[in-house]
């Protein structure tokens, strides 16, 4: 898994790092978020999960492997993610406005930033009981924009590894064309096809420490297992588009307003 550890204290990415992101589709920057930021967001996430502050999504509603069969089943009220993260507390907006984050996103998108509030904009709360497996997919599958050019910024609020269900990614798949039959009816990448299996074998794991940020393209194939550890895994995820890549009218991508992110000069 590639990181940009040599750039953590730099104002942004180098040209070589930008080129590598576009080639591989992801980049990790260690300790991009300050410890006090991580601590504050983690505390808010824990409180909102404990109090079940809406809006949120239940694991049972996904019908993914490992999730409860229904809300009435054992563990049926296990929360998968807390939605509308940006509006939960001003400190999430403070994080979004950090120059070190904004500049890197500007560099990767090569444009002024817009954050769609309809997609991601959430706190992932992968709990140790009743969490689920997420199959291989592209985030762009249910998003509707003129171009599939968006980038996610995934902030780890605690350690993320294979035991607690960290993300796995397949490098370069954001640049690959795929046939419709390579996906199932829910647009998950089929693991029973030999041509898909060859790609899946190239997967990498995004092992993160608190404060690390994983930048990844919305078209890169990624997946995650359930949480086999003893503690809930918290992550904050926001998505960004270039200013000229507008959502298509009448789609879910226009169901909520968007946030204009000030540029870093």
Based on CA inertia axes, which overall geometry fits?
globular
What amount of the residues lies in strands?
Answer: 15-25%
Q: Compute the separation of the termini in Å.
A: 30 Å
H/E series: HEHEEHHEEEEEHEEEEE
Largest sheet geometry: 9 strands, antiparallel
Helix content: 10-25%
Backbone CA Rg: 18 Å
- Any idea of the CATH class? Mainly Beta
Counted beta strands: 13
What does the average pLDDT come to? Answer: 96
How many individual helices? 5
CATH superfamily: q2cbj1_9rhob like domain
**SS-based class:** alpha+beta
CATH architectural name: Sandwich
Integer tally of domains = 1
Which regions have little confidence, pLDDT < 50, spanning 5+ residues?
none
Here the CATH topology equals Jelly Rolls
Question: What's a quick, concise take on this entry?
Answer:
The protein is α+β, with helices and mostly antiparallel strands and 265 residues long. Helices cover 19% and strands 22% of the residues. Strands 1, 2, 3, 4, 5, 7, 10, 12 and 13 form a 9-stranded antiparallel beta sheet that branches. The chain has a 4-stranded antiparallel beta sheet with strand order 6-11-8-9, with no helix packed on it.
């Amino acid at each position: 898994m590639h990181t940009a550890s040599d750039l953590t204290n730099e104002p942004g990415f180098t040209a070589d790092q930008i080129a590598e992101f576009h080639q591989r589709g992801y980049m990790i920057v260690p300790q991009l978020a300050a410890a006090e930021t991580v601590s504050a967001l983690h505390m808010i996430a824990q409180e909102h999960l404990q109090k079940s502050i809406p809006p949120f999504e239940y694991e049972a509603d996904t019908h993914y492997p490992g999730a409860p069969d229904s809300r009435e089943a054992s563990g049926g009220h296990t929360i998968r993610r807390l939605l509308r993260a940006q509006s939960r507390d001003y400190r999430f907006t403070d994080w979004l406005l950090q120059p070190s984050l904004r500049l890197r996103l500007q560099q990767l998108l090569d444009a002024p930033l817009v954050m769609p509030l309809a997609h991601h904009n959430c706190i992932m709360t992968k709990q140790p009981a009743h969490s689920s497996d997420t199959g291989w997919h592209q985030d762009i599958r249910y998003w509707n924009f003129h171009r599939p050019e968006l980038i996610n910024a995934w902030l780890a609020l605690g350690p993320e590894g294979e035991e607690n269900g960290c993300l796995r990614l397949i490098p370069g798949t954001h640049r690959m064309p795929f046939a419709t039959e390579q996906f199932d009816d829910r647009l998950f990448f089929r693991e029973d096809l030999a041509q898909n299996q060859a790609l899946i074998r190239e997967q990498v794991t995004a092992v993160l420490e608190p404060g690390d940020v994983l930048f990844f393209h919305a078209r890169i194939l990624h997946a995650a297992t359930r949480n086999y550890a003893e503690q809930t895994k918290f992550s904050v995820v926001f998505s960004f588009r270039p200013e000229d890549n507008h959502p298509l009218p009448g789609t879910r991508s226009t169901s909520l307003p968007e946030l204009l992110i000030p540029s870093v000069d």
